[in-house]
Amino acid sequence: xxxxxxxxxxxxxxxxxxxxxxxxxxxxxxxxxxxxxxxxxxxxxxxxxxxxxxxxxxxxxxxxxxxxxxxxxxxxxxxxxxxxxxxxxxxxxxxxxxxxxxxxxxxxxxxxxxxxxxxxxxxxxxxxxxxxxxxxxxxxxxxxxxxxxxxxxxxxxxxxxxxxxxxxxxxxxxxxxxxxxxxxxxxxxxxxxxxxxxxxxxxxxxxxxxxxxxxxxxxxxxxxxxxxxxxxxxxxxxxxxxxxxxxxxxxxxxxxxxxxxxxxxxxxxxxxxxxxxxxxxxxxxxxxxxxxxxxxxxxxxxxxxxxxxxxxxxxxxxxxxxxxxxxxxxxxxxxxxxxxxxxxxxxxxxxx
Length: 352
Ligand code: NAD
Ligand code: ZN
Ligand code: ZN
Fold this sequence. Notes:
Quinone Oxidoreductase, Chain A, domain 1, alpha/beta, 352 residues, 2 domains
């Protein structure tokens, strides 16, 4: 028997894609299975979506950085195989997920007022704690999303970040049924945002710089599309023409700074602009337009456990269906490259 065989026979090691240095290729390493602590469960992964945030994490793009070595991934779906000490409302064999909001303190001002995504002591899946790019992961059973019965693991995985994030982001636009929303960036987040917006009764304009993304958006219910890469196109005027004066809300999921300033051009007076996308850096904001149009510009980070349950329920009722292509854990560096190059339609998920 080789070492690897005897080791895996003991079932105490696993493979995980690990960030060892910012900007370097992820390393598929063998590590020991983590031991679930208090309120924690060990979960055997079935699938994990790959979010553009995982690329930002591995590149150390943001001012608040994770600490290598770490395992990214926060759209993991799997079954509970071991429970740590403490009480749990999940049992062995249940299907659960991990999420960006891996846990929160439960007692601070934000947690007590239903705003747990603002908790300053929150842990983030695949960022401050190891995530779902491995064969096993830990979850906090008080915060881990419960996967609805009948869900397809690969298909439901993107709901755990992309889905909940845009669902909450769309709620934050305060766009009413029958009003216009622009979804800027039709990637992993944007392609589910189109579906949530349609299900929420909004009229959707999809904006991207890729024709394939815009075609996908149309097939998912966008009434109009804007190709921001078109030479000489004024996106503000294009949207004003479609909507008769500008969009009531704009949701920006794009991974490019230019899209953030454009949101202001596309907004109607009194509109709410919600930022989900997180490219590093900043953008110039015209003070006059913001004041004169009386705009609200709002950041929105994932969603609470309640938002998550609601977002999953849209999926369970067949109102939202992520478009997912499967890959293997070993493909992770290629998938990252495709995300950076803007070559991914919908979402890619690792199948274990
Ligand atoms: P993705 O790579 O799948 O999609 C990004 C899309 O943006 C692509 O379709 C790309 O063509 C498009 N794009 C690029 N430049 C553009 C431009 N100038 N105008 C319009 N569209 C443009 O990425 P994703 O997984 O959907 O993530 C999107 C962003 O959202 C990332 O920055 C990610 O970190 C962030 N994110 C934030 C939250 C949150 O809670 N706020 C949650 C998840 C992801
Ligand atoms: Zn994410
Ligand atoms: Zn808190």
